[in-house]
Amino acid sequence: MKFLGLSGFIGCALGLALGVGFSAPAHSANFVIGEHTPLSGKLARVGTGSHRGVMTGIKVLNDKYAGQHTFELKTIDDESSPAKAVSAVEKLASEGVIAFSGGYASGVIGPASEAANKANIPYITFGGVATALSQRGHEGFFRINSAAGYGKALVGLVDEMALKSVSIAYSNKEATHKMAGYIEKKLNEKGLKVSTHEYDAHVKDFKSIVNKIKLRDRSEAIVMVGYESEYVGILRAAKLLKPDVKAMIGVWSLATGKMAKEFPDLMENVYGTAMLPFPVSFNSPKQKLFYEAFKTNFKDEPSYLEQFGYVQTRLLGEAIVRAFDKNELNLKGIADELRKTDEETISGRVRFDEHGDNPEFVQRVGQHQKGKIPLVWPASSKTGEKVFPGTPWQ
Amino acid sequence: MELTAQAIFTGLLMGGFYGLVAVGLALVFGTMKVINLAHGELVLLAAYIAYAVESQTGINPLLAMPIAMAVVIAASLITFYLTNKIKKDRELNSLILTFGLGIVLTNGLLMVFSADIYSTQSAWFMEGLVIADSLFSMRSEMLAFVVGLCALGGLYWWLNHTWHGRAIRSVSSNRDAAKLMGMNPTKAELWSWAIAGVLAALAGVMLYVTSVIHPPIGHSLTIKAFIITVLAGMGSIPGVLVGALMIGVIEGLTTTFFQSSLSELASMTVFLLVLLVMPSGLFGKKAGH
Asked: Which InterPro entries does the annotation name (chain B) (predicted)?
């Protein structure tokens, strides 16, 4: 027994020495990244855009590390359902993914990233802006954007317009509800009269809401915090009822080339947050790298969804490689490397604070003008002058 | 006053459209006691056909109606064929079957048309109509309302004044007795599914010209139609009209005087209250009669 014990000890010691202490550093690896995203269900439109960005990120990483490392993406459609997103994360974790890139909507990302945290796998996203997501103390949760970034842009624009009253029409979903609350609070602090109108996601006719704004609120601008189909409904109702407002302003998914193309009669003079103008010209080497990779894969024009999906995936990939080089390919190692990130990306500067949020994130605002969307706020990013006052019916 | 009038007007217009969506479901429910949980998806299928025709040819989406009807009737008859294959507990198992078919249709539309949102490009439908200087609607909403009323009126007339219509009513009333009288119940049921397909196609094209379409909305259309069907009383066409207008007006008033996000809650509360007082629905026959 003693002899066996001694030989066992020696064997273990040799094994450890060969495996860790004296082994040559590994030079190549296949990194498997997991993604759950809504490719069907009510969030399919945004989920598909995000997925295309993540795929572009994987392609660029594979091109960069060709012959050295490979990146593999495993994707599961979470069908816009929190329960299915959790199942997807658990399944992907059991299949050995080392990190997650993806997810859309705070209500889905919350439980899904919780499952990733339990499995000790880092999770990076842009799809959920609820503040609570980054306040849970998860070491491995990272987000390249934030509600505050969108909110600051809208409040900044309204401030610049010197308006005295604003009506906010917002969807009762978690992220939009919180965003509307943030904007209301900030505008109230600036002394503006703010009226709010919450609506359900199933509402198809917005005439009653717009009529209330027209006859009761008599505000100078309407701020919309919702999603594409709702913006179209609100703008149609507004075009019909013609409230006496000076501006129609929305958050995400509004100042996009797709909206300009699909609904030209509704979009003229409408404001929305945007990272880049439309049509976009990708001039810097980083922008060109993304654009060419995206065009090769999809033969389409990228929107902000693809840009964000790409940025988060590429930053994650770089952090994985650095962690691997340090033999720290685990939650802590990858999270540490992500926390060291400080880079000017195609979506602006990204660095992460102690909560995993990007404090540098500030959105810009674009305005639909004759089929184009120049950036009109902030002054430092302007590519055009805003038409103010201006609405689709003026 | 202006707000109230607009709220009621908007509610009536919405109600007319809801009635158009619900009446096909009510007809099949009345005839076969089958709740077609894929009905909203059939409506959506017609809307996508209107989109495809408009985007490919540039013609008025209303001209897509014959194609939409042909496709949706075929889909409706396939659903009938599959439902008819169920030999045991048809009322219950057909729920599962049609729910599954709805998922297949939604995902089929997603694969073919992507998750993007679409609406008609024709500005004519979005032009405003102003009544008495204070009531506003889009042309398309008024059109959908009129089409809804005509469809319900036409169906009511057809069921009461034609041989096929009477056959459907007799099968709905007592299938075995209708069979003993020499009628072919399966044929009558097939007719009701085909007519439901026509109504779904009408509703779908109206949906496309009045609103925005994207794949997930079929399910919410089914739910709205189901609520109206139950509220109306089994298979009652006047009940569908009254129930749909009631739901529309309640939603309009709730949005105006409270919050839009409470409109579904308000209509569901009224729905439950009506069923509490009238368990067979607004125009349903009492049990035992």
From this structure: ABC_transp_permease, BCAA_transport_permease
- Provide DSSP, B164-214: HHHHHHHHHH-HHHHHHTT--HHHHHHHHHHHHHHHHHHHHHHHHHHS-B-
Mark whether A94 and A243 lie in a shared domain: no
Contacts of A211 in chain B (CB under 8 A): 2-3, 6-7, 136, 256
Mention the CATH class of domain B2-277: mainly alpha
Report the residue of chain A nearest B6, measured CA to CA: A208
Angle, helix B139-161 to helix B237-257, in steps of 10 degrees: 160
Chain B positions with Cβ closer than 8 Å to A: 2-3, 6-7, 10, 13-14, 106-107, 110, 114-119, 123, 126, 128, 136-138, 141, 211-212, 214-216, 220, 252, 255-256, 259-261, 263-264
Give the total number of structural domains in chain A: 2
A289 and A272 together in one domain = no
Q: What is the pLDDT of residues A29-87, one digit of tens each?
A: 999 999 999 998 888 888 999 999 999 999 999 999 999 999 999 999 999 899 999 99
Helices (H), chain A: 2-16, 44-64, 82-94, 106-118, 147-161, 174-189, 207-212, 228-241, 257-262, 264-267, 285-298, 304-325, 331-339
Give the burial string for B75-111 (b: 16+ CB within 10 Å, else e). Answer: bbeebbeebbeeeeebeeebeebbeebbbebbbebbe
Q: Say whether both A234 and A368 belong to one domain.
A: yes
Domain that holds residue A76: 29-146+282-351
Contact B214 A202 (CB under 8 A): no
DSSP A199: E
| Burial (Cβ within 10 Å: 0-12, 13-18, ≥19) of residue B223 | middle
B261–A208 CB contact, under 8 Å: no
Q: Tally Cβ neighbours within 10 Å of residue B123.
A: 10
Structure token digits, residue A342: 């400080």
Given an 8 Å threshold on Cβ–Cβ distance, is A198 in contact with B128? Answer: no
Please report the ipTM that was assigned to this predicted complex.
0.83
Same domain (yes/no): A106, A240? no
Which one of B138, B212, B253, B268 would you mutate to disrupt binding with A, by most A Cβ within 10 Å of its Cβ? B212
Q: How many CA atoms lie within 13 Å of A85's alpha carbon, on the beta-carbon side? A: 31
A375 and A229 co-located in one domain: yes
Inside any domain, residue A341? yes
- Cα–Cα dist A387/A384, whole Å: 9
- Residue A324 sits in a domain whose CATH number is 3.40.50.2300
Tell me the average pLDDT across A287-314. 92
pLDDT for B286 equals 61
